[in-house]
Structures are given as structure tokens and as C-alpha cells.
Amino acid sequence: QTDVSQRSEFDEMVYAAKSAFGRIDIMVNNAGYTHRNGDMLGVDEETFDLITAVNMKAIYHAALAVVPIMNRQGGGVILNTASNSGVFYDREMIAYAT
Q1: Annotation: CATH topology of 7-93
Q2: Which terminal residue of the chain, N or C, has fewer Cβ atoms less than 10 Å from its own Cβ?
Q3: Are 65 and 17 in contact (CB under 8 A)?
């Protein structure tokens, strides 16, 4: 289990995978976190920060961790998934859909 909002844990996960398998050929970013449905004004800043750390910043962490390895190997694939909440407006999911 890895807290992808924490860069150090991401690096540890990638190191463990590379040590176990010898290569990193694919990174799938599929982690997501949200708050309970409700008015945007009810989402405190700590929760908003966690949502953006898991849903957006973790993709940056993934790239920093695996791109150098993939470059040395001659390539690899990074697959980022997203929620349809980023496409379809839901006023009760503003922080998640950001």
C-alpha cells in the first residue's frame, strides 16, 4: 500500500517494483480520492489539499519516479485515468472535479 500523495512513498514503491522485476515498463495512475457530496463551501482546505495531492500531484510524482528509469530502458508507458467528473459538472463535487 502506498500513499501516492507522498513523494517519498512513491519513490519507495517504484524502487521496490524495479528491484523485484528489474524493469518498469508501465505505470498506471489510477488512484483517486474525493469528499462526501455537498456544497463546495463545506470542503475544508485540508481535504481539498488531499484531493488535489492524490488526484493530480501523484501523477507528477509518478513521472518523476519512473521517467528516468524508462528513459534508461529505452521507453515505457504511463497511463493516466480520470473520472468523468472532470467532464460533467456536478456542483457537489467541485473539489474532486477540479
Answers
A1: Rossmann fold (3.40.50)
A2: N
A3: no
